Amino acid sequence: ALCTAIPLNLNLSRNKISSIEGKISQLTNLKFLDISDNSLMEIPSELMTLGKLQVLNVVGNPLVKKFEPLQ
Question: Taking a C-beta distance cutoff of 8 angstroms, is the pair 54, 30 a contact?
Answer without folding.
Answer: no
